[in-house]
Amino acid sequence: MRLSLHTDYALRALIYLTATDAPAVTAGDIATAYGISKNHLVKVLQRLRALGYVETVRGRGGGVRLARPPGEIPIGEVVRRTEDLGEMVECFNPETNTCPLMPVCLLQRRLDEALKAYLDVLDGYTVADMAANRRALARALRL
Amino acid sequence: MRLSLHTDYALRALIYLTATDAPAVTAGDIATAYGISKNHLVKVLQRLRALGYVETVRGRGGGVRLARPPGEIPIGEVVRRTEDLGEMVECFNPETNTCPLMPVCLLQRRLDEALKAYLDVLDGYTVADMAANRRALARALRL
């Protein structure tokens, strides 16, 4: 079981944007701090912008910044919006499902219940909670 | 987020073995019923045998059968043993992690807490619970 790189990078970018004192940062800044693909991160930031979590600052010293206070960005919400939760197992996507058990399967309901419990935990925390140790994060990211 | 095919097939195989009246079935029987790869299922059954969930019946009409009552096989336990839970995100595997936040990351703890909640739900159910509608399952599998 794993989260997609897209979700992983989205959460890391939001933590970076909360930890930094800079008014705006570039995809290159974030990618370099984490040692990850800048191209991939550009796509992640586009998605975060489309979702209203970050906004673009134009001009000299421009880049991206949080578009909402980090205390108003629940982790569960980010995961729900960046992760393909319809792919937990094949039958979560009725269009591509081939499992003959689907109409009578009791397991599917339990996996769905377990997924809900997973997201419920993450709904209890915001990006601000993930950056409560902001100084330690800034040091780790060499900000 | 998704479970591996290995876990998906392991759970399906255990449900099949609970739904069938046959004293033993072959990998081909199960693979055909679900329309999935027999080669893959052979590996899944090998793993289930190594874990003590199924056993081999030799001779004419041989194959595999459950080695434990299905009511004594918790779903959470099967998922823990067949799924690579150390790969939820990169930092869950310290050997391959490259994220500089790892020593100070608060997100990792919350993802771990969420994963625990997920497995806790599945620990509340056994393979027998997943086959409580045994007749409907048998019909869906054309047993």
List the helices and strands and how they pair.
Two copies of one chain form a homodimer.
Chain A: H1 5-19, H2 27-34, H3 38-50, E1 54-57, E2 63-66, H4 75-82, H5 107-123, H6 127-130, H7 134-140
Antiparallel strand pairs in A: 1-2
Helix pairs in contact in A: 1-3, 1-4, 1-7, 2-3, 4-5
Do you know the CATH architecture of chain A? Orthogonal Bundle
Largest interface: A-B, 54 and 54 residues
Trace the largest sheet of chain A across and list its strands: 1-2
Proportion of helical residues of chain A: 40-55%
> How many distinct folded domains of chain A?
1
From the alpha carbons, calculate the radius of gyration of chain A and give it in angstroms: 18 Å
Total DSSP E strands of chain A: 2
Q: Helices and strands of chain A: which structural class?
A: mainly alpha
How many angstroms does the end-to-end distance of chain A come to?
A: 32 Å
* Mean pLDDT metric of chain A: 95
Q: Helices and strands of chain A, in N-to-C order?
A: HHHEEHHHH
- Uncertain spans of chain A: none
Oligomer: homodimer
How many individual helices of chain A? 7
Fourth-level CATH superfamily of chain A: Winged helix-like DNA-binding domain superfamily/Winged helix DNA-binding domain
Give the DSSP E fraction of chain A (strand runs of 2 or more residues): 5-15%
Query: Given this structure, which CATH class of chain A is correct?
Result: Mainly Alpha
The profile of the biggest β sheet of chain A is: 2 strands, antiparallel
* CATH topology-level fold name of chain A: Arc Repressor Mutant, subunit A
Outline type of chain A: elongated
